[in-house]
């Protein structure tokens, strides 16, 4: 039966060429969950030579350790009852499209290997027989990354916060020699920067997955810019003389998430400081425009047309490799979570100005992290 079904499918016009054109792993299963077709990508990744895969079930060809626990093969052991692949296939055979995650422990003779897969099933009928197009995506790398992120952003952030607290205790006036107190003060500032950077990367990771919670509070715009300036001076010693705050922000207030706003402005200001021409000055300013608060970050340099076209793209940087998250992160925070608008203009005479527009009151809270979370 399997051989007959395989021949019938392969004589369909363009069927094999169409399936083989997909870079992902695709198979066709019959109503007994047996493989009657596998595309080229699947055969290269998992399949034996020739057509020896015909008649096998997914767990058998993937090397699942449970596929040989009973004489009936894949899908018949007690462990298979919780298998996402089996549920997907059975649901699809009943006529519905289905998708689940599937965790497989495989053994191909070289030791155990854990696979994290995303599987999809889509049913179709041909000449009165039921089939399922069964596709597989290996998400093992993504699963490992999420696990590492949970450890890093959980335990490491907790350790960084503890370090900051201990450094703060050392920095309190205690009658120690001046050089010791100065070293303790610098240690506290470095610990605060470390905690802030870890928190920022956690926020970016969560923001890209839509898993953030906003923590709204009323803040003074001038105080936010002052904190940005102080962070720049700590990050770039000696740059303080090249950063200027324009007055007028002390009485301007708005309701927002201060953590995300400060980070977005810091990203833009850091970018401006690094991009300014020799001797140039970075100006941080804020003003009111009706019901909106407008922050601006200016430097006298001009961005090329090539840079302007890519400035908000993730991973793009004019400063070299392993950069390119700053302006992207600012755009993501401002527009997706703070309900505002981030734009820029750049020219030879006017220099470059990034502008953040926010409503004085955030109308509909989105998803972003709190300062103390």
List keywords for this structure.
single chain; 373 residues; alpha+beta; five-stranded mixed beta sheet; 11 helices; 12 strands; elongated; disordered C terminus
Could you explain how this protein is built, in words?
By secondary structure, the protein is an alpha+beta fold. It has 3 domains: 2-138, Beta-Lactamase; 140-209; 212-373, 2-Layer Sandwich (Heat Shock Protein 90), CATH 3.30.565. The protein has helices at residues 2-10, 15-20, 40-45, 58-62, 84-93, 140-171, 178-209, 221-235, 258-275, 305-310, 326-337; strands spanning 25-30, 35-38, 98-107, 112-126, 129-138, 217-220, 243-245, 253-256, 282-289, 292-299, 341-347, 351-359. The strands form 3 sheets. It has a 5-stranded antiparallel β-sheet. The radius of gyration is 29 Å and the shape is elongated. The N and C termini lie far apart (59 Å).
Question: What's the tally of helices?
Answer: 11
Strand content: 15-25%
The largest β sheet comes out as: 5 strands, antiparallel
For this entry, what is the oligomeric state of its chains?
single chain
Give the CATH level 1 class of the largest domain. Answer: Alpha Beta
Just name the CATH architecture of the largest domain: 2-Layer Sandwich
Number of domain modules: 3
Distance between the termini: 59 Å
| CATH fold annotation of the largest domain | Heat Shock Protein 90
Round the mean pLDDT to the nearest integer and report it: 84
């Amino acid at each position: 039966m399997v051989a007959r079904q395989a021949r019938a499918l392969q004589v369909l016009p363009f069927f094999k060429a169409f399936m083989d054109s997909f870079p992902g792993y695709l198979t066709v299963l019959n109503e007994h969950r047996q493989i009657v077709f596998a595309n080229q990508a699947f055969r290269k990744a998992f399949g034996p030579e020739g057509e020896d895969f015909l008649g096998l079930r997914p767990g058998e060809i993937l090397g699942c350790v449970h596929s040989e626990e009973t004489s009936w093969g894949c899908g018949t052991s007690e462990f298979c009852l919780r298998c996402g692949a089996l549920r997907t296939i059975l649901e699809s055979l009943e006529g519905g499209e289905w998708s689940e995650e599937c965790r497989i422990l495989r053994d191909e003779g070289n030791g155990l290997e854990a696979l994290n897969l995303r599987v999809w099933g889509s049913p179709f009928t041909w000449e009165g027989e039921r089939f399922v197009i069964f596709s597989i995506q290996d998400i093992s790398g993504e699963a490992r990354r999420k696990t590492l992120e949970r450890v890093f952003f959980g335990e490491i952030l907790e350790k960084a916060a503890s370090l900051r607290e201990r450094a703060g205790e050392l920095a309190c006036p205690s009658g120690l020699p001046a050089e010791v107190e100065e070293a303790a003060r610098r240690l506290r500032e470095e610990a605060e920067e470390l905690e802030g950077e870890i928190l920022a990367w956690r926020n970016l990771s969560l923001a890209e997955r839509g898993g953030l919670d906003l923590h709204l509070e009323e803040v003074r715009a001038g105080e936010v810019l002052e904190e940005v300036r102080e962070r720049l001076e700590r990050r770039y010693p000696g740059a303080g003389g090249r950063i200027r705050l324009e007055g007028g922000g002390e009485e301007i207030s708005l309701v927002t998430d201060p953590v995300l706003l400060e980070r977005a402005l810091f990203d833009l200001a850091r970018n401006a400081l690094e991009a300014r021409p020799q001797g140039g000055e970075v100006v941080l300013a804020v003003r009111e425009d009706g019901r909106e608060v407008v922050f601006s970050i200016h430097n006298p340099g001009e961005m090329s047309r090539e840079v302007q076209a890519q400035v908000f793209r993730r991973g793009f940087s004019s400063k070299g490799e392993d950069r390119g998250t700053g302006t992207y992160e600012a755009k993501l925070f401002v527009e997706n979570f703070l309900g505002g608008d981030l734009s820029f203009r750049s020219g030879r005479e006017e220099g470059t100005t990034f502008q953040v527009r926010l409503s004085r009151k955030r109308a509909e809270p989105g998803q972003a992290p709190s300062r103390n979370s």
